[in-house]
From TrEMBL:
This is Ionotropic glutamate receptor C-terminal domain-containing protein. The lineage of its organism: Eukaryota, Metazoa, Ecdysozoa, Arthropoda, Hexapoda. Gene3D superfamilies: 1.10.287.70, Periplasmic binding protein-like II. It comes from Cimex lectularius (Bed bug). It holds the Pfam family Lig_chan. Coiled coil: none annotated. GO terms for cellular component: plasma membrane.
Amino acid sequence: MFKTFITIFLLFQATKCLEINMDFTINDQLSKLAHQIIRNYFDKNKCIIIIKEDNLLTDFPRGHNAFMQILTEDLCFDELAKSNILQAFSQNCYGYIIQISNPECFMKIWTEMLYLSIQRPNPKIFYLPVVKNETTNISHDIYSMRETEISDKILVAEYSADPSVRLMAFNYVPYAHKDPYDGFEIELFKLFCMKYNCTLEFIDDGFFWGSIYKNGTGNGINGLVYTDKSDFGVAAYFLWMEEFMYIDYSHSYLRGAVTLLVPKPIPLSGWKVPFLPFDIKMWCTYVLTIIVATIFMYLITSATMKYTRFKEAIIRKKQFIAIEDSLLRIIGMSVLQQPSIPLVPHTPIRHLFTSLEMFYFILTTCYCAKLSSYLTVPLFTKPIDTFHELAAQNFPWAAYHEAFVYALQFADDPEVKTVVNNFHKMDMEGLKEAARSGKYGLTLERCPSGHYSEHEHITLEVIDNSHIMAENLFGSPVVAVIRKASPYKEKLDKFISLALDGGLFKAWEVKAALLYLNSRKQLAIELSRSLTRKSEPKKLTLNHIQGTFIIYGSGVIISFMILICECVYGKRERLNH
């Protein structure tokens, strides 16, 4: 016969039947449970027999049930009790509530009385534990008896004896801390088990948040919960859509965020200084004005020679009569260089030249004013403070797990795709090397109360040469991971709501931070958000004008190259003649 046996664990799994009040005695709780079972499962039994040793069920639930009590000290040797059980057969009493020290005796006696009766009952039996023997678990002994084959309606209540609840967590302070296990998410489950009488069993397979694979296996928080090797998983777990198909999430209790520790701006190289006063658009405009001025000076000079009386005077002075001559003279004019000999007076060339002089005088004055500020105040590269700047500078960043891109990897935004493509997964040794190089952004968890997660590769030296981004890389509510359709979910969600109402999470975070975080690191990270390098006026050094020497050197080299070309070209011309 197919049998369905259900074991109820008091104070833990049967809390729907029993609302625990610590002011009640164990007997009060058992009575309350018995009342609930009678109302829900014995409602079709018009007669119920209660066999007990203690003073249980002194008041009976109101309803259509009739009750028969058998009070016995030792059912195995109580002939009167046996006679009453036999008599109950004839009265169609097939519901039993048993609370005796030796419950196996009831099944043996009941089977013995069955063969003395003409009735063919199918009993419904509910076993309650004896108060004075709380640690005895009897379900295995009862279900192993041959006599229990007669019915599939046998229910056994046992004392839970602190059942274990498995929690996957790894070292991620202040969320979770190992050796000892602590942290504000661990505190949540410690208090949860204190309330619901369970024992926490901690698990860590070393794979952090882990992954779920298509072959039904997995590792880390995701994999262990998915494969039922852990009941819960915590350690700054964010809401991830892909994993939600295989696992479930509790109510969120706080909001977390991930940001980056990026290198501080460094002083600009001296060779860039001559080009800093104007941006790229201004430099393009400047070059365009030189080209336009060259063309106009050449064309107007040619027209003056052709249509006016100043042809011979212009030819004698040899100014702007060739395109290359016009270009060189306009370049000189743009830096306020005066002609070596005066222009021909009263000509259109002279009027155009004067207007160009005024234009380049204003332009050069603006350039010099801006250049002087750059030479006296230190200049640094542009900092990375926003998500847009991180993508625009194509800056690489690194972490020890791909979970740091779970929230970004399926986005369609081009900037997000750029940031995801710049992510590098590294082991701890690789991260240490990357942190020292200053060429990578390093992930940091920004906690709700303003603390930051700490990692082995983020040292005080690294923090001193870095600053934290003003914007978050991404953020999400923090949740606990549980199995899909978990029986714990409803109670955990209610417990989280109570903890939130009491403000416990913030207090737990502060406690974990005080115990396990480095206060110097926390202060250094916080100050890196606002402190910048000193920008006091300073003395000029050779480094500040190296750009000028580069321009000068480039001019000398170009001049020598042109001279050599002219010599070679002139020699060939002479040979040809």
